Amino acid sequence: MPEAVPAVPGPATGGTDHPAPGKVVDAVVIGAGFGGLYAIHQLRTHGFSLRGFEVAGDVGGTWYWNRYPGARCDIESVEYSYSFSEELQQEWTWTQRYPEQPELLAYIQHVADRFDLRRHFTFETRVTSAVFDEEIDCWTVTTDAGEQVRTRFVVTAVGCLSSSRVPDFPGLDRFRGRAVHTGRWPHEGVDFTGQRVALIGTGSSGIQSLPLIAEQAAHVTVFQRTPNFSISGANQPLDPEQVRDVKEHYAEYRAQARRSFGGSMIRTNRVSVFAVSEEERRAQFEARWTMGGFAFMAAFEDLGTDLAANALAAEFVSEKIRQAVADPAVAERLVPTDHPIGSKRICVDTGYFETFNRDDVRLVDVKQTPIEEITETGVKVDGRVHEVDVIVFATGFDAMTGSLLAMDIRGRGGLTLREKWAAGPRTYLGLGTAGFPNLFTVTGPGSPAVLSNVVLAVEQHVDWIVDCLEYLRDEGLATIEAEVEAEDAWVDHVNDAADRTLYKQANSWYLGANVPGKPRVFMPYAGGVGRYRKRCDAVAADGYTGFRLAPPGGLTGTEPSEADPQPVGILAGS
Ligand code: NA7
Questions:
Q1: Hey, whose CA ends up nearest to atom 38 of ligand 1?
Q2: How far is the CA of 117 from the centre of ligand 1 (A)?
Q3: Cβ(227)–Cβ(334) below 8 Å
Q4: How far is CA 279 from the centre of its chain?
Q5: What element of type H or E holds 152?
Q6: Whole-model pTM over 0.90
Q7: Is CATH 3.50.50.60 the right assignment for the domain spanning 25-163+399-550?
Q8: Does ligand 1 lie within 6 Å of residue 512's CB atom?
Q9: Is the shortest distance between the CB of 200 and ligand 1 below 6 Å?
Q10: Ligand 1 centroid from CA 34, angstroms
Q11: Which is nearest to 341 in space by CA: 316, 310, 312?
Q12: What is the pLDDT of residues 504-542, one digit of tens each?
């Protein structure tokens, strides 16, 4: 099994700021990544009492755990950053077009320091359960340290790609070498010098890490089940002139991103791929290829929705793969053939395909002949053991629902979230789910987060949630809960939006296809962040249509008794 990550000492900041034991707090925030940190900041700014819990030893979320060589964001740094503070966005200067994990983590730590956010968190502590008491409209949150906190609201900011997953290969425990997962990378790093390495998985994590592991290791065997489309990020140091321009016009750029489909400043060429000559088409593809990264899929307006249009883009990228890889047989195995380009999140790489030109890198196809077992000395495929010293599992995550369902969340009538979502997640706007009052999911299933720039997505969710809590406080209301009809309509709409695209044609983690037994449901909202934001704003402006709002005891008709803990904060107007 991949080894456990050693505990990292907690941050050396000035103590904690936790409400007195026994007090009912307004909100418990779970997670100290981009979402949880901003939730804490906004809730505190608006006068809510709170507690935060985080499994890791410090802030960072995704960027705390994914420390593998080459880990880098696929959204440009100037966009993948908070917009809520003008001072913050002016004072922080990114160095590269696509930020590497250490720079991202340094940024998040800077935000935590600058806004003094750590003091609200209890680190190295996992929330194990959250149980709603409908008599008194109150949640009890329990941690693995045995602490119980009573709270009016629970805000989960647990991340969409935080539940790392190692497939259940027979013999996993027998391996005598070292085994690590990219999403739980050891903090002291892994020295591959002189080592024979097995890299299992060719998603974004495998594709980013291969070139760097290969540079160090004696030999790398890459076990590929599904070839993936990957586009060079054309990463480079940021031009100071460009940084100056972005900083000067940040407000406009952010506004444009908020209105866009994917939450970024990439502009889609609003022309069908069929409306231009072959020459023009090629020139446009070439120009977008040179730009690098996600801009490629915006070369024409119909690449994500029309299979024939998509095939032209896929063919262009396949040609690039064939040009990059010297051995035609290896190149052919690296060319994706089983899904439309972009129907899985496109990978953004630095020299991935070229790495297969090295003598010390070998590609093993495990589609037709899957990995049989892990032995004491290596990985067995088709009767042959590939002997290695280290296995790197770049095998992905139980995405979007894994970390939510890992907690025992119980709503009305003791219904568990696991029971409610047994056939797939059901939410209203990705923010709440019927039967679970006062539970908010930042970047929950049914929201566009993972199809977009996640930082922009968490800001929108947190702003909406905090506005909602203020509304409830101002109106003297105790609970908010999605109505079943609104939720059903939203789930239908999420499905319709996906059906208008090619997303469902890939066996992706968006569909839960990578986890055996997981219901095959398209989880994110593919209608675009601009449209989604408008919808959320309209719901709020109309007094939270589709949600049921109630005063204290309003749904049960029960007033809290003297013996019950008296709510502080939200109802008491703290
Ligand atoms: P991904 O994209 O889920 O990739 C996981 C990879 O692991 C993928 O190539 C899988 O093949 C492979 N895998 C999973 N199980 C197996 C087994 N049993 N045998 C062989 N190969 C296997 O995770 P990443 O961490 O790379 O990226 C996640 C997201 O992070 C990414 O989309 C970006 O948004 C950032 P498969 O494709 O399932 O055949």
A1: 514
A2: 33
A3: yes
A4: 38
A5: strand 148-156
A6: yes
A7: yes
A8: no
A9: yes
A10: 23
A11: 310
A12: 999 999 999 999 999 999 999 999 999 999 999 999 999
